[in-house]
Amino acid sequence: MADQSISKADLMISGKTNKNIDGKNVVAWIEGTDPQLKNEYVLLSAHYDHVGVGRPDAEGDSIYNGARDNAVGTVAVMNAARFFAKNPPKRSILLALWTAEEKGLLGSAYFAENPLIPLNQVIFNLNIDNGGYNDTSVITVIGLGRTTGDDQISKAVSEFGLKAIPDPAPEQGLYDRSDNVNFARKGIPAPTFSLGFQAFDDEIQKYYHKPGDHVENFDLDYAIKYWKSYILAAQLIANDSSKPVWVAGDKYEKAGKDLYGN
Phi and psi of 36, rounded to 5°? Predict the structure, then answer.
């Protein structure tokens, strides 16, 4: 018989202090132009928090700027707000910048449980979140292939000479690691725009959650195409008479039918 004796040990962990803080989501909306469709919303979202001040790198830099994750996403939603304020589409646009994504998707989770409008009026969530890029000829859409909004997204991306590709690194579980998943669980079709990458490789890891993620080493020409692609995708979906739905067999298809009643 194996030895069933139990050993005990005392552990002391230092260097981490947990405390409660108030986090703030930033939410706005732009009314649509169609008398009926304006009661439906396309949710554009990104998280604005990052790591903050952390462990210094070899150069002694301890400030985690987060240009890729997720300043570029935050700017995308702000640019969308500026554009749609002047060019409102048929459906209304709901804009959200989430807090505490890096702490467990907390800001978006709160909104999903305490929505300011009924969730069945939100017909699509086009989230935007990023780790980095290693291919500036593509935009990686986490969740491409899972909703009928794919055609609109691919069309928008191609307008700027880029190609939309699906998640090339499913082993990373990226779909379930960003704010979109809190809305997918409720049944809302919810892909995430990400900077173009073909693999979660060393080029990504060089900047992902690292102090070296500065705007100075970011390809801003690519960023402009990326932002415009995001805004056009949202515009096409917001103006389309049909609503995007989950593809048959997707694990969130039932939640979508329960939410929308179809």
Answer: -95, -50
* Six-digit token string for 78: 């702000």
- Report the distance separating Cα 228 and Cα 252, nearest Å: 29
* Total H helices, total E strands in the chain: 7, 9
Tokens 């979109």 correspond to 180
CB of 122 closer than 8 Å to CB of 243:
no
Which tens digits make up the pLDDT trace of 132-165?
Answer: 999 999 999 999 999 999 999 999 999 999 999 9
Q: pTM here?
A: 0.92
The structure tokens 């985690």 sit at 64
Answer for the pair 179, 101: CB distance below 8 angstroms, yes or no: yes
Helices (H), 33-149: 72-86, 106-113
The alpha carbon of residue 170 and the mean position of all alpha carbons in its chain are separated, in whole angstroms, by 16
